[in-house]
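Now for our specimen.

. . .
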Amino acid sequence: MGDLNIQVRYLLWVRFCERGGTGLSVPRPAGAEGWLPIAGLMNTKYFFLTGRVPAIHPAAMVLFIAFMLMSLLLKKAFCSWLCPVGTFSEQVWKLGRRVFGRNLHPPKWVDIPLQGLKYLLLGFFVFLIVAMSAEAIHDFMSTPYGLVADVKMLNFFRDIGETAAIVIGLLVLLSMLIQNFWCRYLCPYGALLGITSLLGPVKIRRDVEACIDCGKCARACPSSLAVDQLVQIRSVECTACMACVAACPAENALQFSLVPRKAATPAERWRRRALSPIAVAAVLACIFLGLVVVAKATGHWQTNLPRDVYMDLVSHAREAGHPGI
């Protein structure tokens, strides 16, 4: 609901600028820059190279760092707990299950190569950004295109062409047939968060002694992971959705936890190190709200452009071409 509220306010702000300052006036919600992960990655590199917070789209960097930190601590929890695309994808495959009676599960010889596509896309973007100097990033962000990259993203969907509509329609259809098709095969952001999650201390862990080998956890996993056959889930595809934990009928057999202690009884050591859904939600909220509050308090949240400049840029956003083209 919070993301929807941001998008509605952002659309109202864009319409206000396009109309030259007439109509309902709302402040620009910088949170919409969460839809600019590439800008977030570029600005993060700029920050680490220069030690300065970028003036253009600083919120994109703050949110990018927040989501990376979430993945470092709690696997790809952002994907299953916060990502609006992931939420939409989940509703689509559930709709597909109701319409078609089931979802398809591609064989491994098809599934594994397709999973590599998102890493190829990630490698492409990382290659381009790694090659950019801090000055090049600053110059790019200062162009009309860079200044209104968020508006360009919005206009892509507002002025969608026939080819783009067909591609999106095909993605929706495939998402109805295959669980989380976009997330599993094509999302480069998810690929980056998955790689980061490998370094995290918290994982889904199975207590072999307590497990009753019912297989319910594996069947519940939306990422089709063999949870019932592993002691801990290290896969980059694990989103910490905890569907497997919820499906497990054996007490303390499956937990989202730190490495269990060797002392005490098996049940006690798992209980002491496990994270409940409430704890996961609390950690995610603390990371997100903490970084946003600090960014706002230090003046590193909004892109501070005069209103008349923004109105001119937004009203001509469709004419702003990519500086690299």
Summary: Residues 45 and 51 are 10 Å apart (CA to CA).
